[in-house]
C-alpha cells in the first residue's frame, strides 16, 4: 500500500464523503414555531420536535447517501492498492456524487417531507449535504480527468 499515490482530489473526496455521512445526522428540516399543529401528521419530525435529520426522515435515501459517501473511500482504496480498472479512476465516484446531489436537491426543494401544507424549511445540515455531494462530484471528476478520462477510446465505426 502506497499512500503517496493519492492525489489532492482523493483527499478532498474522502473529506467530502465523511462530511456527507455526518450531515445525515444533522438537522435538514426545521418546522416554523408560529404554526399551530393540531394533527399528528403536522409534526413531520415527530411530535414535539422542531427539527429532523435525514437519517430520521428518509428510510431508504439514507442508505443510498451512505453509499455515495463511501465512494471516495473506495476510490482511495483502489488508488492505494493500484487495482486495474476498465474505466478511468474517479468516474464512478463522480457519478455517485452527482446522483447524491440530485437526490438531495429533489428531497429538499421539490418534495419536502410534508403531507399537509405546514411551514417546513431547510436547515443548515441540508446545505452541508449539498456542499459535500458537490465536493464528491468534483473530486471524482478531477481524478477521472487525471486518469485519462476516456480520451484513449474511439467510438465504434470510426476510421
Shape: elongated
Counting DSSP H or I runs of 4 or more residues, the number of helices is 5
Most strands sheet: 3 strands, antiparallel
Number of strands: 3
Please tell me the overall pLDDT.
77
Poorly predicted residue ranges? none
Order of strands side by side in the largest beta sheet?
2-1-3
Helical content stands at 40-55%
Order of helices and strands: HEEHHHEH
The whole-angstrom Rg is 19 Å
End-to-end separation: 41 Å
Provide the β-strand percentage band.
5-15%
Structural class: mainly alpha
Topology:
Blueprint: H1 8-23, E1 27-31, E2 51-53, H2 54-57, H3 61-81, H4 91-110, E3 120-122, H5 124-146
Antiparallel strand pairs: 1-2, 1-3
Helix pairs in contact: 1-3, 1-5, 3-4, 3-5, 4-5
Task: Characterise this structure.
With 159 residues, the chain is mainly alpha-helical. It has a domain at 3-26 and 58-114 and 128-146. 53% of the residues lie in helices and 7% in strands. The protein contains 5 helices and 3 strands. Helix 1 packs antiparallel against helix 3 and helix 3 packs antiparallel against helix 4. The longest helix has 23 residues, at 124-146. The model has no long low-confidence stretch (mean pLDDT 77).
Task: Name the descriptors.
159 residues; 5 helices; 3 strands
Put the structure in a nutshell:
The protein has 159 residues and is mainly alpha-helical.
